[in-house]
Amino acid sequence: MYPKLSDLINDIFGTDILLPIQSYGAMIAIAFVLAAYLLYLELKRKQKQGLFPVLKTVITKGLPATPWEIAISGIVGFVLVWKGIAAITNYHDFAENPQDFLLSWRGNWWLGVLGGIASALNAWYSKRKARLEKPVKSEVEVPMLNLSGNILIITIFFGLLGAKVFDVIEHLGDFFKDPLGTFFSFSGLTFYGGLIGGSTAALIYARRKKIPLLVLIDAAAPAMMLAYAVGRMGCHISGDGCWGVPNTAPKPEWLAWLPDWMWAYDFPNNVNNEGNLIDPNCLGNHCPHVLEKPVFPTSFYEFSICTFFFIGLWFSRKYIKISGLLFGIYLILNGVERYVIEGIRVNAKYSAVGNLTQARIIAICLILGGLALSIWVILRKRKSYQK
């Protein structure tokens, strides 16, 4: 396994570099980029079909910088310089454990203050140059496509927040032991928390902007499926604990053509340092571990299944004419996939709800929600035909 991106690079090219980039984080970033590109393509296609109205908004030119804008600029400038200089001058410590380094109080305070002041002054001066004696208001047309960046940023922020909140709920014991470290950890992101948090925020934003919700969620469905698949590959590459239950059974003959690791894998050098030490003589916090028993590589299974589902959604999107139906199908597929995979996956179970895991409970809700949405949009379309 490759906890850091540099581990993968060094293994492939035989180099010895150290980068402060976690493999899982890198794959999540790739997932967002791919999702953003696919969403852009779909929004562009649907806009050409006339499915999105041209929005109108009022802008005001010539206003001075507000205290809030100046303060935000100053804070951002302070943090970037405060931590940035320290990361450069203590690169090895930063690259070895970026999470601990960023959450520590280490940094160049004096240069950070100077950076914050410079950033705040720049925000004030930039607005001052463009200031008018009498600010001018004007109404402009904003194509729906121009809002895709805003939607993406909102989805990412609230998606990550929701993913972390749901993970904390699922691992309350770890949170009570180390609240700050657990909440700001770069690992432990629950997909369904991200789906609920990001989708809810994006839908609220879309509703406020009077964007057709059914058309928007259809555009997002294939992108969300692919993003999940790529994210799961990040789990597999880093070995972040999203694996299955122990699997010591011999590989069936009908699966003889598959590599052994696809049937049962011990995740050597996993990012969680779970299992036994590979080198018993290794000392410190970063000694590679290997699981005591091989497990089902469920993260790889989910990557494969969801990639297949993405292909199906992507190539069927032009043939499904009922708005909202594609997203309903996405919810059903996502829920079924996760419900099934939870049968061989390690996760906390809740005895109060039939010994189900958090993911299975949400998966059932997604399946039912997807069915309800699909039936509703189909009946809605039939009624419109009858009129």
How would the blueprint of this fold be written?
Layout: H1 5-13, H2 23-48, E1 55-61, H3 67-89, H4 91-96, H5 98-103, H6 109-129, E2 136-142, H7 148-170, H8 172-177, H9 179-183, H10 191-208, H11 213-238, E3 276-277, E4 289-290, H12 298-316, H13 325-341, E5 349-350, E6 356-357, H14 358-386
Antiparallel strand pairs: 1-2, 3-4, 5-6
Helix pairs in contact: 2-7, 2-11, 3-6, 7-10, 11-12, 11-13, 12-13, 13-14
Beta strand % = 5-15%
DSSP helix fraction: 55-70%
Structural class determined from secondary elements: mainly alpha
Number of helices: 14
Average pLDDT: 87
Q: Which residue ranges are poorly predicted, with pLDDT under 50 across at least 5 consecutive positions?
A: none
Q: What does the radius of gyration come to?
A: 24 Å
Number of strands: 6
Shape: flat
Cα separation of the termini: 60 Å
Which H/E pattern describes the elements? HHEHHHHEHHHHHEEHHEEH
Strand order of the largest sheet: 1-2
> What is the count of distinct domains?
2
How does the major sheet shape up? 2 strands, antiparallel
